[in-house]
Design goal:
Length: 294
């Protein structure tokens, strides 16, 4: 093989640097060291006899040659991932590994016991749970299944709405019921619907404590810092909390169970999706904050 030939690993290095803009970012993306990325880039440029990136204070900027290779790498990556999904889709045995991504609140308040039940009934299927409030890419196989609240899931994914998440105002049981302090979402949480509701209700004027996760807001309410809008499934069974009023209709959110179209017929994927859908349906009253249901 000619040493000037580009390998797939070479393309991945160039693409990662182009997309991340730094060697450290590319290293994190590829799960290798900064030194490895630096060494590999130098070797690629030496073999090609061309500079692929301009080193600027703001980061690594692709040269025309770098742009060309990065674009080619992106096309190759899409083809490789498509082949992987098609091959995975041929697997009809209900065994193997399934990687699920969901939020911290859903895992804590709803899904963890469901996953435990699934493992007991399907011991041949291993679960990996990626807890993140950022949307993972199912197209890039960062996860096989996503279980997330959304009003508009990506059109590239397939699945179904498995429930509606109701939200209501909660205060600490130790807190004076007349207290007017509020806990709200930090701007990094990007919870625009709640911010608008709090402003419309005038509660933003009494919000002096903000957090960038729902679990952080929950902790603040438990400790009596103020009231907050939180998911009913997370709070109704908590003796440290008191619900104030009924769920807020305009803050209800759909709960979606999603996968990539190439994976929907994989036996282990289908088994988990059906199990989760049925289990969540059985807990629909809890999701809806229906205290009258058993």
């Amino acid at each position: 093989m000619n040493e000037n030939n580009l390998l797939w690993d070479d393309l991945r290095i160039v693409l990662a640097i182009a997309q991340e803009g730094t060697l450290s970012g590319a290293a994190r993306r590829l799960a290798v060291s900064h030194a490895t990325v630096f060494r590999r880039l130098a070797d690629i440029e030496r073999r090609l006899g061309a500079q692929l990136f301009e080193r600027a204070r703001s980061g690594y900027i692709p040269t025309p040659a770098g742009d060309d290779i990065a674009a080619a790498a992106q096309r190759v990556e899409a083809e490789v991932l498509a082949v992987e999904r098609r091959i995975a889709g041929q697997d009809l045995r209900p065994s193997g590994n399934v990687r699920v991504t969901t939020t911290d609140t859903l895992l804590l308040g709803l899904l963890s016991p469901i996953f435990a039940e699934f493992r007991r009934s399907h011991p041949e299927i291993e679960l990996e749970v990626a807890v993140s409030n950022q949307l993972f890419s199912l197209t890039k196989r960062e996860a096989d299944i996503a279980i997330r609240p959304s009003l508009a899931p990506p059109e590239s994914l397939v699945g179904r709405r498995i429930g509606t998440i109701a939200q209501a105002v909660y205060r600490a049981s130790i807190q004076d019921s007349d207290a007017v302090n509020w806990v709200g979402p930090d701007e990094r949480m990007a919870y625009r619907a709640l911010e608008i509701w709090m402003t419309q209700q005038g509660h933003d004027k009494h919000c002096h404590y903000r957090v960038d996760t729902l679990l952080g807001m929950l902790a603040a309410v438990r400790d009596g810092i103020g009231r907050a809008v939180l998911p009913c499934y997370l709070c109704d069974d908590d003796e440290r909390l008191v619900r104030v009023g009924e769920p807020i209709p305009e803050l209800a959110t759909d709960l979606w169970l999603l996968t990539h179209s190439d994976l929907r017929r994989v036996a282990r994927i289908r088994a988990l999706m059906e199990f989760v859908a049925q289990s969540v349906s059985a807990r629909s009253a809890r999701l809806l904050g229906d205290s009258s249901s058993p």
